[in-house]
Amino acid sequence: MCGIVACTGLNAGDLAMNGLRRLQYRGYDSFGLSWVDPGGTGLQQCRSTDSLDDYQVRLPHTQTVIGHTRWATHGPVTLENCHPHQDDRGRFSVVHNGIVENHQYLRSLHDPAVYRSGTDTEVIVHLLTAALDECDARRTALRTVLHQLSGRNTVVVLFADGEILGVKEGSPLVIGTSTGQSFLGSDVLSFSDVTRTCCALAEGQMVSISGAQINVFDVNDSPVEIQWSEASMPAEEVGKDGHEHFMIKEILEQWLTVARQATIPIGQLAPLEDALRNSTTIMVLGAGGAFFASEQIAWLLREKGFAALAVPAYEIESVKSCFKPGDVVLAISQSGETADTLRAIEVTSSWGMQTAALVNMPMSTLAREAKFSFPNNSGAEMCVLSTKSASAQVTFGYLLASLLDGQNNMSNDIDAMSSSLAQYFCDETLRTFRRMAASLAQCDRMFVLGRKLFYGTARMAALNIKEASYIHAEAFAAGELKHGVIALIEQDTPVVIFVDVDDNYMLNVAAEVKARGARVIAIGYEDNALFSDFLPLPSVPAPLLAAVTSLIPGQLLAYYLGVARGLNPDKPRNLAKSVTVQ
Ligand code: GLU
């Protein structure tokens, strides 16, 4: 969701474009750049509602650029609403991530005739114009503006003389440096192909960049010493590796990415293990797909005898009485910037709970703010749907649950699971899923049923199918069938069921829906005459690892359904990967 880049030095134009392309995965609907014209004509800009992939224009030679990918919150996707927004005297350009919650009031402070866009962002332009008229000191003027805004607003301003000011309030800003060059980006991925020497701004900090000069200031405008570090990024980079889409590339990488969880030294987990053992109830927290991963993890912890509840981040207030100060909240997020999850953590911290974070993006806000932080190490995940990060998170959950159960040989099981997945991802499996998807592509709804460990699996599969194919897939606990859902079954209604080994209960479910005309698509270990169609589950070395491996058939089905319906599963409509607004 929305991205910011800024770049100074040689080839700044190309590097800024490259940075925006590397932020595309977050989801956006339009983009724009602003730069200082070396010919002395002041600030220039280009903006577009096209895809960055279709935009072939090269920026003119310049050494200072800011750029933005917009995920519209206020005002439709039009050229006037694209960022950057420039003041009418050519003094500065603004890009913004977030929502100015009091923008209606702030708008009313200025003559309506001055507005050229429908965005909340434009109020920042007019407020900054007024503040600069009052006070030449730019940092002070920008702070004055920020104090007037409600909500979380990260803002970057390019001034006509080439100074860039950026303030992190809410969504992240990471600075990067290499010889003669400076970078600013929403994440380190936006420039990590040039440099990994970086530093994430803390909440409220302001950075000033002029050429290679980078200075950081705290909320009181006192200089802050920059603590540079080397971002550790796993080997997978942002290419499609010969695949048609990122989604299938990332699905097929999972044999590799789950195995990385086996390399986490057990000793590193000891402080978290202690805190978990001392928790009366463990909260596992997430939003969207990460919430379903949380359900799997909570299930694994409960299986091992530990009280654990999965909580959707947006419903945090309702569960206060279930937890005690000191209990651990294990927060799950691919980006580590999910606004709902960050807010929920603020709430649980105010209850005295301790935060452990499981995130894929190094240096993210959640990773930095948590007391215990563990990276997924899944590499860049560019498809909007979480596939390899979800399976890595649940694998980590398996590791934790087993550790709490007093085991210490989990790496063997995880390695064996990795080998099983490597075998599963053969051409024959992919052909089977592709054929099945082609036969289902015309349906407009389907049900997905599971029980026990496969209930969370069914929920994740239905979410993946909705996202990638726009088919209305709805998941239910199989037990709910007779309490309502069965009324919806008609002739040929597709019903996907997850069936465990010797699971007679699910065989009865298959019989019951089949008796009412359903097309029963079973995902399991063994075919059965009751099933209309059968898709295989990967084999597992330990039964509880099915919490991980069972996620994969749903991903494959979702992917091939999207493709069969002529969609691009990497970029579902209206969705953003990193949901940085609440
Ligand atoms: N609220 C702003 C807009 O709608 C910024 C959205 C974003 O963060 O991309 O233009």
Describe what is shown at a glance.
The protein has 582 residues and is α/β, with parallel strands linked by helices. The protein has three domains: 3-230, 4-Layer Sandwich (Glutamine Phosphoribosylpyrophosphate, subunit 1, domain 1), CATH 3.60.20.10; 234-424, 3-Layer(aba) Sandwich (Rossmann fold); 426-574, Rossmann fold.
Low-confidence stretches: none
Q: Return the CATH topology of the largest domain.
A: Glutamine Phosphoribosylpyrophosphate, subunit 1, domain 1
CATH superfamily of the largest domain: Aminohydrolase, N-terminal nucleophile (Ntn) domain
Helix content: 25-40%
First-to-last CA distance: 11 Å
**Distinct small molecules:** glutamic acid
**Domain module count:** 3
CATH C-level class of the largest domain is: Alpha Beta
- Major beta sheet summary: 8 strands, antiparallel
Round the mean pLDDT to the nearest integer and report it.
94
Q: Write down the Rg.
A: 25 Å
